[in-house]
Design goal:
The chain is an alpha+beta fold and 457 residues long. It is built from 13 helices and 18 strands. The chain has three domains: 4-117, Beta-Lactamase (2-Layer Sandwich); 123-293, GAF domain (Beta-Lactamase, 2-Layer Sandwich); 305-455, Alpha-Beta Plaits, CATH 3.30.70. Helix 6 (151-165) packs antiparallel against helix 8 (260-295), helix 10 (336-343) crosses helix 11 and helix 11 runs antiparallel to helix 12 (386-401). Bound molecules: guanosine-5'-triphosphate (GTP). Guanosine-5'-triphosphate binds at residues 299, 332-337, 340, 345, 348-349, 352, 374-375, 446, 450.
Length: 457
């Protein structure tokens, strides 16, 4: 059996040995006793703590008092969440277990409270929640990117995903041009001035094919050529797929020098987002290239018949709604067989290319120019004034007449075209009718001696 003083000293040792802050509070809310862990967590010496209002040491004193009252009314509280504020400003998140204690007559004399430091646990929990949110965002972005039909649809999706993934950052999305020579700014966000176009070699991220972090005081990474020399920390996230460059995402945190933790987190989010985005973008690029191949004539670069048929139906719908007129002009090179026979197929190809180029230059607004087949072209043009359309087409005929084509060193003779025109709605209400009527008018032009324009009639 321990003597009373030995018991007291034994109990004191136990209290002081506890790593959890322990405190007894009187019925009027004044601190009566603390252990050294309480001194440590508050940064306030014991003699100052004792006698002071217990709620002074919390970030939310009102909530602390509410917990205290709850313990009083219920006899105890379990895992009551509070945050202790150290004299230096450091915050410790805790869960309180508090129970009332009574005097010798059985009346409640105060509260005995023990706190458990859960700062690390809460931080890990918040990070886990943020990581889950990031994963969901990245998955949503990838899903949407996979459903895009055109690159233009992908930009706003990526922009809004990256804005949410890096909420305290500004940034921009660059796409590599078709020739692979320039990164062109497709979209940007936040208050930032970015280079509109630059060479991929100016970017260390693009050169090395991996995320480039620079502008941090503890990093030796050089600042890219497309970024101001005195820039703060920034990330260049290259978008590469199958060893092919697609684009670049530039992220600049708004906080001056993020700590190592923050940078590490940014890097891992950036890596996960770029991994998902690059595959979806590669598929989209491939799809766009295939579509482009399927609607273009390889010799002249003009749209082909398939595209014309697709788009003419759409244009007619639009014209019907807006009550506008539309002209379909069928243009055929005269005596092309004889030309081919005299000068060869390759010279004929050169004429087709040059004629195609001239026709392409004729385009205005939403005009469509296509190679319909062989030596036949179709121009679709929308206009309110039919006389203006006919004037433009007549000028086109004259331009072809004066088109000078060289094949190697050989100057080729000038050619002419015959043009048949059908106008919507006067000559037909749908694609097939209009193309037939334009073809019939072309036949009339050929019969009448060629090198002329005939309107369906
Ligand atoms: N070089 C070249 N010739 C082509 C191509 N496609 C079609 N042709 C030729 O275009 C010629 C068309 O001849 P026709 O349909 O008889 O017409 P035309 O000789 O132009 O006579 P008209 O149309 O009545 O003035 C044929 O000789 C085809 O071989 C092509 O891609 N390249």
């Amino acid at each position: 059996m321990l003597a009373k003083s030995a018991k007291t000293s034994y109990a004191r040792s136990l209290i002081e040995a506890s790593l959890d802050p322990l405190v007894t509070i009187s019925a009027d809310g004044k601190i009566m006793d603390v252990n050294s862990a309480t001194e440590k967590v508050t940064g306030v010496p014991r003699k100052e703590l004792i006698g002071s209002d217990f709620s002074n040491y919390f970030t939310d004193p009102q909530k602390a008092q509410d917990g205290y009252r709850l313990a009083f009314s219920q006899g105890k509280v379990t895992d009551y969440p509070l945050a202790i504020c150290h004299a230096s400003g450091k915050i410790t998140e805790v869960l309180y277990n508090a129970t009332v204690y009574r005097d010798e007559d059985g009346n409640i004399a105060g509260i005995f409270a023990a706190a458990r430091d859960v700062t690390a646990l809460k931080k890990a929990q918040r990070e886990l929640e943020a990581a889950i949110l990031h994963m969901q965002l990245i998955r949503e972005m990838t899903d949407l990117l996979q459903s895009c039909q055109k690159m233009d649809e992908a930009y706003p999706i990526m922009k809004s995903a990256f804005m949410r993934l890096f909420p305290e950052s500004d940034g921009g999305l660059y796409m590599l041009d078709a020739a692979g020579n320039s990164l062109v700014l497709a979209d940007s966000w936040g208050d930032i001035r970015l280079e509109a176009v630059f060479n991929p070699d100016e970017c260390w991220g693009m050169r090395r094919g991996r995320i480039h972090l620079a502008g941090c005081c503890n990093s030796i990474n050089p600042v890219c050529g497309h970024v101001c020399a005195d820039a703060g920390p920034y990330l260049c996230i290259p978008l590469l797929a199958h060893a092919r460059g697609l684009g670049l995402i530039y992220i600049e945190p708004r906080f001056a020098d993020p700590n190592a933790d923050g940078i590490e987190r940014m890097l891992s989010i950036a890596e996960a987002a770029a991994d998902s985005a690059r595959l979806a973008l590669a598929n989209l690029t491939l799809r766009e290239e295939l579509h482009e191949l399927s609607i273009r004539d390889p010799l002249t670069g003009l749209f082909n018949r398939r595209f014309l048929e697709e788009v003419l139906d759409r244009e007619l719908l639009r014209m019907r709604r807006s009550e506008q007129m539309l002209a379909v002009a069928m243009i055929d090179i005269d005596h092309f067989k004889i030309f081919n026979d005299n000068y060869g197929h390759d010279a004929g190809d050169e004429v087709l290319k040059k004629t195609g180029h001239l026709l392409n230059g004729f385009r205005e607004g939403s005009d469509i120019v296509c190679r319909y087949g062989g030596e036949e072209f179709v121009v679709v043009t929308t206009e309110v004034d039919p006389q203006k359309i006919l004037r433009r087409l007549e000028n086109l005929r004259l331009e072809v007449e004066h088109l000078s084509v060289k094949f190697g060193n050989q100057q080729l003779p000038n050619l002419s075209v015959s043009i048949g025109v059908a106008i919507f709605p006067a000559h037909g209400s749908n694609r097939v009718e209009l193309l037939n009527r334009a073809d019939q008018a072309l036949y009339v032009a050929k019969e009448a001696g060629r090198n002329r324009l005939v309107v369906a009639g």
